[in-house]
Design brief:
It is a single chain. Helix 2 (21-34) packs antiparallel against helix 3, helix 7 runs antiparallel to helix 16 (461-473) and helix 10 (300-318) packs across helix 12 (351-364). The protein has 16 helices and eleven strands. It has a domain at 7-247: Amidase signature (AS) enzymes. It has helices at residues 7-15, 21-34, 46-61, 103-110, 153-160, 177-183, 217-227, 262-265, 272-287, 300-318, 337-348, 351-364, 369-393, 416-420, 427-432, 461-473, and strands spanning 41-44, 72-76, 114-119, 166-171, 186-189, 209-214, 257-261, 291-295, 396-400, 436-443, 449-456. It is globular. Strands 1-3-2-4-6-5-10-11-9-7-8 form an eleven-stranded mixed sheet, with helices on both faces. It is an alpha/beta fold. Bound molecules: glutamine. Residues 125-128, 151, 170-175, 203, 311, 423 line the site of glutamine.
Length: 474
């Protein structure tokens, strides 16, 4: 199979009739089958993907195709697609089929993207290694002894292994950017409120955002311009107009101002080669005439605790709906209403999800609400104000995506705190709502890729894409 690295390469072959969409989809399906060992896909939607491919082929003949014609895309298994199964990689949603499509799915289909299947992820998007999935581990295609990252591990692995052109993930605390970094692809967490969450299975609603995982910046921009924007089904979505991101990308920005948080780059756990790459990038930017300056952000130690207090609180509330009555798994051992709730939830949820529900219930409970949840909200405000303050003086903040490269299976799974610390550099963007992208511009001497992350001002995706393109070429 020919390897396509961008939608424009695919479209050039499609429009020259060198290949049909049907043949393209067939090729991806065969590749998914060949690479079954990666366990990136939970299900391939062969029938609907082939139907859509034939429809797009007809449209191409009559030159009426949408702008994503030929974009073969996979969905993280927490995004609803009407008439298709969705499980959040949890036993508790076994057999559940979506009754409606997520807004993002509707919008992609309307522009003739082809949805090829659903990708394995951490259970309810809780994890950083894909090891919490009820469907087993996803292997990192670049080194199968290592994790692909999480929670959108299957979605990132699928793009890296060329099992699809792009995928959609969700990012609550890094779940798009961290696996993108581990698998050597591009991952964007949009500004909170840029993309509708309607039809995304909720984990922590004030943090969750859907975003693209792609092989290049331009495809991420294209997907974003199609799926972003106002939606009557999600009141948290902004009605700000959506620019045509892909058309506005310039890789030659004017002089820009970039900040870096010294304590972040100097932090203990950061791999020295990643640190060196961030500093080298800073030097290159300076040499090109941009302003790059260190700034203070004395709250690094509060990022991960604030994230885990608030997200577990929201998760405990969001996940209350899985009760063995409304949908999904119901325990066979239940004898009455109460045991239906208790046994269905005890048997249906995995260990990590239960840990978070308990933690979240605890921080919200009467005696501890003020000490944990209220305090967490106050700290969130502080972190947000300080981040916005930096971004009022600079265009971007540059930082690593992850402390290290992809780790081995089991390396952190015995110690939840060690796993949570994997999120140290990614959660700031979710706590504060700003957009952040991970770009595959590093390669470690161990052979594995790593990402560099850029955070921007709220709703500055257009500038973020241009700067990203520039950084990729720098
Ligand atoms: N690793 C983080 C967590 O476990 C982030 C997850 C996410 O972004 N969905 O919560």
């Amino acid at each position: 199979m020919k390897t396509y690295n961008s939608l424009s390469e695919v479209q050039s072959d499609l429009f020259d009739h060198k290949i049909s969409c049907a043949a393209l989809v067939q090729q991806y399906i065969s590749r998914i089958d060949e690479k079954k060992n990666l366990n990136a896909f939970t299900e391939v939607f062969e029938k609907s993907a082939m139907e859509k491919a034939r429809e797009v082929d007809e449209k191409i003949k009559s030159k009426t195709q949408g702008k994503l014609a030929g974009m073969v895309i996979a969905l993280k298994d927490n995004l609803c697609y009407k008439g298709h199964k969705v499980s959040a990689s949890s036993k508790i949603l076994e057999g559940f089929e979506s009754l409606y499509s997520a807004t993002v799915v509707e919008r992609l289909l309307a522009e003739d993207a082809i949805i090829i299947g659903r990708c394995n992820c951490d259970e309810f998007a809780m994890g950083s290694s894909n090891e919490t999935s009820a469907f087993g581990n996803v292997l990192n295609p670049l080194d199968i002894t290592r994790v692909p990252g999480g929670s959108s591990g299957g979605a990132a692995a699928a793009v890296a292994a060329d099992l699809c052109m792009a995928s959609l993930g969700t990012d609550t605390g890094g779940s798009i950017r961290q696996p993108a970094s581990f698998c050597g692809v591009v991952g964007l967490k949009p500004t909170y409120g840029r993309v509708s969450r309607y039809g995304a299975i909720a984990y922590a609603s004030s943090f969750d955002q859907i975003g693209p995982i792609t092989k290049n910046v331009r495809d991420a921009a294209l997907i974003m311009e199609v799926m972003a924007g106002k939606d009557e089904y999600d009141s948290t979505v902004s009605s700000k107009p959506v620019p045509e991101y892909s058309k506005n990308i310039t890789s030659k920005p004017a002089k820009i101002r970039i900040a870096y948080i010294k304590d972040v780059i100097e932090s203990n756990g950061l791999n020295p080669e990643i640190k060196a790459k961030v500093y080298a990038t800073i030097e290159k930017l300076k040499a090109a005439g941009h302003t790059v300056e260190p700034v203070d952000f004395p709250y690094i130690d509060y990022l991960v605790p604030t994230y885990y207090v608030l997200t577990t609180a929201e998760a405990s509330s969001n996940l209350a709906r899985y009760d063995g009555v409304h949908y999904g798994y119901r325990s066979k051992n239940a004898t009455d209403l109460e045991s239906t709730y208790k046994k269905s939830r005890s048997e249906g949820f995995g260990t990590e999800v239960k840990r978070r529900i308990m933690l979240g219930t605890f921080v919200l409970s009467a005696g501890y609400y003020d000490a944990y949840y209220s305090k967490g909200q106050k700290v969130r405000r502080l972190l947000k104000d300080k981040t916005n303050d930096i971004l009022s003086k600079y265009d971007f903040i540059i930082l690593p995506t992850t402390p290290g490269t992809a780790f081995k299976f089991g390396e952190h799974s015995a110690d939840p705190i060690a796993m949570y610390l994997e999120d140290i550099f990614t959660v700031q963007a979710n706590i504060t709502g700003v957009p952040a992208i991970s770009l595959p511009i590093g390669k470690h001497s161990n052979g594995l890729p790593f990402g560099i992350q850029v955070m921007g001002k709220p709703f500055s995706e257009a500038d973020l894409f241009s700067f990203s393109e520039y950084l990729m070429e720098l």
